[in-house]
Design a protein that fits this description.
The chain is built from 13 helices and 13 strands. By secondary structure, it is α/β, with parallel strands linked by helices. The model has no long low-confidence stretch (mean pLDDT 93).
């Protein structure tokens, strides 16, 4: 019922906006429904903002006080003013299926950058029977109105064609993911590493482990049962360094339940840009999150901790590619501790190398530039 009321409300308030002209130089950006400046839209915005042009760049956010590049306007997410901006922008840039937007107009262009790398779990149409009806309606509409979608790998392009309810004429921008561009620039990596460690008071001689699990469809938090002290001891014994664990839960998970007693564990779930955290981490521990595919670009170890494996795959079947992933996996804290103890970097690197040979990856460090060029071309030609 809530879905229908929201749609009726949208129709009522946006109908007059359809009589306003679309502004050919306006581009509007969103990240995870107003959750700060981050993910793929952030990097496209920054690229466009540094170019000398007359573009009107608008970011929608739940917190209008967030820092943005010079010249960018911030509008409160979900406000009447945001609906005006969506209705009159020439180009939309988003990374989720978003119901807090007006209906797309015929003369508008929608670039979907998505927020996952795929190849881990089945998503969208392939698990349609497990999705809520309201999400299905929203996803099908979102696919129908998408003009272009960003892809990082050939495998991902195939998956999107099959599962995203896209129109036949959608354009696949096989540029790689803009959010991963910084992984190819040593200075950007050093800067992010320095800023994150300074923010959380972490020494440069300390080992940083990024624990970054995905959400569960049923909202369960039982799987986030990492034995932090045990894992810290394992890493300390392995690398002879002090260890800090950064815990970043998925944006769909309310992290307020976490009560990290150990001073060496830090909840960074509200940090808006996951890529900065990755660049500061020496090791990633995750589960069914496609963030592992991104982190692999940094040539650093990924370990999988899967305590609820059987339950998870019953609720959300895995992609056939999951079993090909080159990451060591553990199903309880003791196994994870043993994997850390016996980890062989040479063997791991060889497994990653062989895995990468099985697919065509488009990430090369210039996806933001290519996406910005594509947007400017759409504006010029229309």
């Amino acid at each position: 019922m809530k879905f229908y009321i929201k749609n009726l409300f949208k129709k009522i308030i946006t109908f007059p906006l359809n009589f306003l002209p679309v502004q050919p130089n306006k581009i509007i950006f969103d990240n995870f429904g107003g959750r700060g400046v981050g993910d793929n839209p952030k990097y496209i915005l920054e690229e466009l903002a540094c170019r000398k042009s007359d573009l009107d760049l608008v970011w929608v956010a739940k917190d209008p006080a967030i820092p943005v590049p010079k010249g960018v306007r911030v509008v409160k997410y979900g406000s009447l003013n945001s609906f005006y901006e969506w209705s009159t922008a020439k180009v939309w840039v988003d990374n989720i299926r978003n119901s807090d937007r007006p209906w797309k107009r015929k003369e508008q262009i929608y670039l979907q950058t998505w927020h996952g790398s795929d190849g881990v779990k089945l998503i969208e149409k392939s698990v349609a029977k497990n999705l809520k009806k309201t999400y299905l309606r929203m996803a099908k509409y979102d696919g129908k109105i998408t003009d272009a979608i960003v892809s990082s790998r050939h495998f991902q392009t195939i998956g999107m064609k099959t599962n995203f309810w896209l129109a036949d004429n959608v354009e696949f921008l096989e540029f790689g993911l803009p959010r991963n561009d910084d992984f190819f620039q040593e200075e950007k990596i050093r800067t992010a590493n320095r800023e994150v460690r300074k923010l959380y008071d972490i020494g440069f001689d300390e080992l940083v482990v990024l624990y970054m699990p995905t959400f569960r469809d049923d909202g369960s938090i039982d799987a986030y049962n990492l034995d932090y002290q045990k894992i810290i001891r394992a890493f300390q014994n392995k690398y002879q360094k002090n260890v800090k664990i950064l815990v970043r839960l998925h944006p769909n998970v309310d992290s307020s339940f976490m009560n990290l007693q150990d001073k060496n564990c830090i909840n960074v779930s509200t940090y808006s840009n996951a890529q900065d955290l990755m660049m500061s981490a020496d090791v990633m521990v995750t589960d069914f999150s496609s963030s592992s595919i991104d982190f692999m670009l940094l040539n650093r170890p990924v370990l999988l901790y899967l305590p609820d494996y059987r339950r998870y795959v019953n609720d959300r079947p895995l992609d056939e590619n999951f079993d090909k992933l080159p990451f060591p996996r553990a199903y309880n804290n003791q196994e994870l501790s043993e994997i850390i103890k016996t980890f062989d970097s040479s063997q791991y690197n060889e497994m990653v190398r062989l895995y990468e040979l099985e697919d065509v990856r488009f990430d090369s460090g210039n996806a933001s530039d290519q996406c910005a060029n594509w947007i400017e071309k759409q504006i010029r030609t229309t």
